[in-house]
Known about the structure:
CATH class of the largest domain: Alpha Beta
Oligomer: single chain
Number of strands: 14
CATH architecture of the largest domain: 3-Layer(aba) Sandwich
Largest sheet: 7 strands, parallel
Amino acid sequence: MTRSDQARLPIESANQGADDAALRVPPRTPTFATRIKMTLFRALERASELRAGLRHDSASGSRVGSAVGTGLAPGALWVFVSTIGELNAIEPFLTLLLADLRPETLVLLTDRKIYRESFLAKYPRAFVYELDGTSRDLVQLMHAAPPRLVVLGEIPCLLFDAPCRLSFGAIYELKRRGVPVCLVNGWLYGQEPSSNLDRIEKTLFGRDYVSLLDLITVQNEEVRRTLVQYGADPARVIVTGNIKFDAMTPEHWTAHGKRSEHLLRSIVRGSRLCIVAGSVTDLADQRDVLKAFKHVSARLPSAFLILAPRHPEQKDRMATLKQYCVDAGYAVAFRTRLGDVALPDGTQVLILDTIGELRDYYSVATIAHVGRNHNLVEPLAYGKPVTTMGFWEPHHPAYPVYRLLVETGAVAELNSADQLGAEWLRMLSSRGLRATIGQESQAVLKELAGASARNLALLRRHLDLRRDVGGSPGL
């Protein structure tokens, strides 16, 4: 099987389960048995809240009251995104969906208390609603801004499977009112419920949750099989590939106006070969990167390494990293201490100890390396040859992308510092090889892109979004 054939697998399987008989059907509604279970569970939930001294109804009403003052209206698009990570992941699809539906109001739902500012930075006119986790939390909001459609971003594919808390009761209230609910770009974490009450809720409603969702699009066939085994309708669980591949496209880059403008310009003007190792979190991995660079510097002494560690605010870790460089005999500079000046002659290792600049440095790299469990697509979008070390965590959000890119040959995976150093040296020693690798990687990315458009097409085929929901205008 060729790289191109492998890359097409998720795209070709996007039609699985797209039975015409399932298209344009009314939203699913809870069964009588589910309603009875919900009544019993709510009694248990309220008893638990009373024991804990919690009162949610008044708080929910207060938050919705403030929401009404912001101009919420019927026909809203509701999107559940637990963190900024999920919002970024589905943003290409959300952009298409907003342009297609043109809702009067965008409501971003989250179970976290720390993302309001970052959500509003992306969507200033959105209303951000922080869920309290109870089964009746959304009732007041439904009266204030009846949704036309509810989209769940990536998680949870199964109830309490992921590190977020979306109560089944929230889905129940939506489905009881006939609101279409779909989950896009789904994938599985494999976590267990974090409390006894959550375990009871999952036991009672785990199968109801997946069976009530009107459409579930997932990243790969493995996720699809699991959801079908758990009770999801096979005709409504469809593999569309990964929306993340639509988030990064090649673009014209310039150093003008960047935080490190002078430093970046000096790298572009210079003739030195440059390795950018980004998002290298663990100290052991940082040591491996520095050891791998020894193979390069011994043969190509003018080459230099830019190492971007995670969490540069942790001073003790930065001190340890500096000591690693000193022990290895490298001439090292830290971006925060160096300032935005030309890279000093003789610098062998530049520590990028700032936040938010890594993408600019990938753009000037000769080759790139990405630490475990982080964004491999970013440097690929600039046409850079990319390496990573093996042994990624299977339930990490970046894992599906990593696996696809390694399987298609777009990213080189190495399992030791010696192997990594040898691969870097091979790539750096031939401009023609780098160009070939970059072109092949770009071709793979092009093959893997398009999930956003496929998601939108499937949503419009499966869901009758022209019908009025809660007083919302038709399309």
